[in-house]
Every structure is written in structure tokens, then in C-alpha cells.
Amino acid sequence: MVDDSPDYLADHWCKKGRIPFCLEGKLETTLDNQRKRVLTSGMSYQVCDNAKVHPSYTCTGAKLFVVD
Questions:
Q1: Who contacts 41 (Cβ-Cβ below 8 Å, separation ≥6)?
Q2: Which residue of 23, 43, 44, 54 is surrounded by the most CB atoms within 10 Å?
Q3: How far is 5 from 56, CA to CA, in rounded Å?
Q4: For residue range 21-33, what is the model confidence (pLDDT) as tens digits?
């Protein structure tokens, strides 16, 4: 479980693959090709190891269930 506070901005570009499932709030992830993914409550996506580096940001806060 991850509980990101409002205005959370990752301080690194993550290379670790994962499957985040958004339980509450909204999380924006920017991939290395500048494409953005937005998760809101009930949404999920998958990122493979070393496939796309990605920092994340939330303006409202987000509660996530993450499988690494």
C-alpha cells in the first residue's frame, strides 16, 4: 500500500516494473517518451522492468495498491 500525499512528486525516474492499482485519488505518471498515464480510482496499468522509466505526481493525493 502506498499513500501519496497531495502535491507528491517523485524525486527520481523509476526503472522498476510494477502494477499500481488506484484505490483513491489521482496519480499522473510521465513515461520517458513524454506520454502521460493518469490513474483514478479503480484504474490500473502495468510497467515492465527497464521498459519505461517514469516519475509520478499527484496534486490531490492518491492511495495505491502496488505489486512490484
A1: 22, 23, 24, 25
A2: 54
A3: 12
A4: 999 999 998 877 7
Q: Where are the beta strands (DSSP E) in 1-68?
A: 2-4, 8-9, 19-30, 36-40, 56-58, 62-67
Quick one: cell of 1? 500500500
Q: Which CA distances in Å does 12 have to 22, 30, 41, 42?
A: 20, 12, 24, 26
What 3-state class would DSSP assign to 35? coil
| Chain Cα centroid distance, residue 60 | 13
- pLDDT at 51 (0 to 100): 67
Q: How do the domains of the chain map onto residue ranges? A: 2-46+56-67
Number of other residues whose CB lies within 10 A of the CB of residue 4: 19
Grid cell of 42 as nine digits = 479503480
Distance between CA atoms of 50 and 5, rounded to whole angstroms? 26
